[in-house]
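INTERNAL AUDIT FORM
Audit reference: QA-55
Scope: verify that the stored structure record matches its stored sequence.
Auditor: D.O.
Record contents follow.
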Amino acid sequence: MFYLGLDLGKKQDYSAIAVVERYEPIHAWQAPAGTELMVRHLERLPLGTPYPAVVERVRALVTSEELRHGCLVAADATGVGDPVLDILRGARLGCEVTAVTITSGSKATASGSVAAPACGVPKQDLIAGLQVILESRELKIAEGLAETGTLVRELMDVRYYSGMRGRQRIGADGSGEHDDLVIALALAVWRCGRGPKKKVIFGDKRLF
C-alpha cells in the first residue's frame, strides 16, 4: 500500500510530494518482512508551478504501474481553500483524497464526507508522528532518491518554539529555509496511520 503526501506551495514555498510504501501482510500470521515503512519518492516542484500542473503530476504518480493498485492521498488544504482540492478530486486519480488543514491547535478534527474526507490536524501531531518513527527506525528512505539530501537538511532545520503567552510554533529555522518535504512526508506518514503512540515532549529546540 502506498501513501502520498502533498504539501501545496504558497507564494515562495515549493509544492512537495512524498510517497511512502507500507508492507501490509495478506495473512494475519505473516510478519512484516524487514522495514515496515519505506520512502519511495520525494519531489519538490519548481517554485511557481501552477496548481493544475501540480495536480497533473500527482495524477501521473498515482496512476503509475506501481501505485495504481493501492494508493491514498493526503493533501495539505491549509490556506488554499476548496478550489485546489476540487481540482485534485476531479482529476480522476482513482484513489481517496483526504484534505488536511494543518492547525496550530492541540486537537484533531474530522469533517467532510466518505467521498470527500477532510481533517484538521495540529502541526505538532504531524511532526511528532514523523519524529517517533524516525527515532524508532521504522522509516527508511530508498536509495537513489534525488531529494534525500534536501529532506535531511529540512529535517535538521525543523525547530520547536515556545513564545509569549504560551504560543507554540513548529517550522524551519533560518533564512530561506523550507519544510515542504518534511510536511509532505509527515502527511504521508499520518495518512498511513502512524501517528504518535505516546505523548511526545519537545525538550530540545531541535527536533531532529
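Auditor finding: record pair retrieved intact. Residues 2-191 form a domain with the Nucleotidyltransferase; domain 5 fold (CATH 3.30.420.240).
Action required: none
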